[in-house]
């Protein structure tokens, strides 16, 4: 397998844009990524397009890539439509990486685009509610129901985890404070106002113990990544960022080990890099407690030590391992089909040393963890990507 280089990245601002569509979002992200690499649409061999919910929210089915990218100069290229819940564009990146690494193509473009905002919020929430096995009975410990199925599921997991680890609501609020601080430094973030522990705890209760600020929001946005072989990258005026590993796993039934744990193990083995070597990470914090749980899933600390890790400040922007310096899903935003690619965009900035005030000093090795859907008591799919310079 050949070495694969990330040569260009781009993304739109994330937010609620009722006046924008999949085309305008995709076009903006693609142009930025191609310009960043110093290439043109004609230089792209293959396109992998990640989108999760257009069929429900906008009605666009089946040819989402072809319709969204028809005005970008990419028309006529091989295009693959990837739908894999919140992991859609990280899955697209995984497939693009395999295509370039195997020699099937020299270059590939990954695009993740999502339009979730809708005049009728029930439509947006309904899209999330379909990312479960509809024939599987719902857990009995979801509580009264908040109107957001996934937040009820996250809350039920959180209550069990609090009993196991001694984590408190203040620990989850600390994640939000860190997230909003990072978001305030990110021009692409949906939420750019800092907050306090008290404000997080006093925000509206969504599903006990999750308050509003502890839950990722509905949003719109697009991200794009131009990747190529190492030889092709030598022709470009770019600082290469290397893909060291890309792993994907799905849930098992019965669940014997969390998908995030298995995906991380595969990525660490593929890259010969351990969790203690990671400088900066983007994790799937669809709810604030999820970030802490992933500290343990990914081996950043021992089981039960995640509350102590967030309290130590080690995961702050200037810490030993900067976690979610983009603001993560909580503050950068979570337009689900764009999220996985957005994580890799942020990590590319970090490894290039161009992340501005949110830069983790001297970042050399980075990790992205992205998961999606729910099945058999776990996320339905998880991916872990490791990058380095």
Total DSSP helices: 14
Shape: globular
Contiguous low-pLDDT stretches (5 residues minimum) are none
Largest sheet: 10 strands, mixed
Q: If you consult CATH, what is the topology of the largest domain?
A: Peroxisomal Thiolase, Chain A, domain 1
Question: What structural class do you assign from the helix and strand content?
Answer: alpha/beta
> Biggest sheet: strands side by side, in what order?
3-2-4-7-1-8-12-11-9-10
Strand content: 15-25%
Identify the CATH homologous superfamily of the largest domain: Thiolase/Chalcone synthase
CATH class of the largest domain: Alpha Beta
Pfam families: Thiolase_C_1, Thiolase_N
Protein name: propanoyl-CoA C-acyltransferase
EC number: 2.3.1.176
Domain Thiolase N-terminal: 4-231
């Amino acid at each position: 397998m050949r070495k694969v280089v990330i040569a260009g990245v781009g993304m739109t601002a994330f937010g609620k844009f009722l006046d924008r569509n999949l085309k305008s979002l995709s076009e903006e992200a693609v142009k930025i990524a191609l310009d960043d690499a110093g290439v043109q649409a004609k230089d792209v061999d293959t396109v992998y397009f990640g989108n999760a919910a257009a069929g429900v929210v906008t009605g666009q089915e089946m040819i989402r890539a072809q319709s969204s990218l028809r005005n970008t100069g990419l028309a006529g290229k091989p295009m693959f439509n990837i739908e894999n819940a919140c992991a859609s564009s990280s899955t697209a990146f995984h497939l693009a990486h395999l295509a370039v690494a195997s020699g099937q193509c020299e270059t590939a473009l990954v695009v993740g685009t999502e339009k979730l905002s809708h005049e009728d919020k029930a439509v947006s929430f309904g899209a999330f509610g379909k990312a479960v096995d509809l024939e599987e009975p719902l857990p009995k410990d979801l509580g009264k129901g908040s109107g957001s199925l996934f937040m009820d599921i996250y809350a039920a997991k959180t209550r069990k985890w609090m009993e196991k680890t001694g984590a408190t609501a203040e620990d989850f609020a600390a994640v939000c404070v860190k997230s909003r601080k990072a978001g305030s430094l990110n021009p692409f973030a949906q939420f750019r106002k800092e907050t306090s522990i008290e404000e997080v705890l006093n925000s509206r209760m969504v599903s006990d113990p999750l308050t509003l600020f502890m839950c990722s929001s509905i949003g719109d946005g697009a991200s794009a990544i131009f990747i190529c072989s190492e030889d092709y990258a030598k022709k470009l005026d770019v600082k290469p960022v290397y893909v060291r590993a890309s792993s994907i796993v799905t849930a098992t039934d019965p669940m014997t080990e969390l998908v995030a744990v298995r995906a991380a193990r595969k990525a660490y083995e593929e890259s010969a890099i351990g969790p203690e070597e990671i400088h900066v990470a983007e994790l799937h914090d669809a709810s604030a407690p999820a970030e802490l749980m992933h500290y343990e899933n990914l081996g950043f600390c021992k089981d039960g030590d995640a509350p102590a890790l967030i309290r130590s400040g080690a995961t702050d922007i200037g810490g030993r391992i900067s976690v979610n310096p983009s603001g993560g899903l909580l503050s950068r935003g979570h337009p689900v089909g764009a999220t996985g690619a957005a994580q890799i965009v942020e990590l590319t900035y970090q490894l290039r040393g161009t992340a501005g005030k949110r830069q983790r000093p001297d970042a050399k090795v980075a990790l992205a963890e992205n998961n999606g859907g729910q099945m058999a008591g776990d996320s339905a799919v998880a991916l872990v990507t490791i990058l380095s310079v």
